[in-house]
Write the structure tokens for this entry.
Amino acid sequence: MSADIDNNVKTGYLGHCQICGSKDLQLVLDCGHQPLCDSLVPGSRLTEPEQYFPLRQFRCPNCTNNQLDYIVDGSTVYHPEYPYRTGVTRELAAYQFLIADELTARYGAVLPDVARAVQEEVTSALATMCAVEVDGVDVFVEEIT
């Protein structure tokens, strides 16, 4: 593994792959500078300047990871007025139930079996692609009754 791997990335440009540390990143898509998504400006602030950040997708040919090359500070992205809260939207809950049903129907397995298969695949992929040995990977599964 490369000494360049740093998952505690700092705000600003990121010039290496977050998975394998390679600096050989290939530009996939450049959307220029964009405002933060889900940070809609209220009418009272329409005349004020809005922050824009680079939005560029890069691919690592070494491990096939795709990532953005600019990190926006978390307190800027998830500000107090940020409209989304994980797990509390009806749409997200409905989507999770739908995916669970589709996985069960497609693979003919109950979710704990799917979770075990995911754990094995992720553990194997980490070892193969990143030379990272782990004892296991936590996968949370909630059975639908």
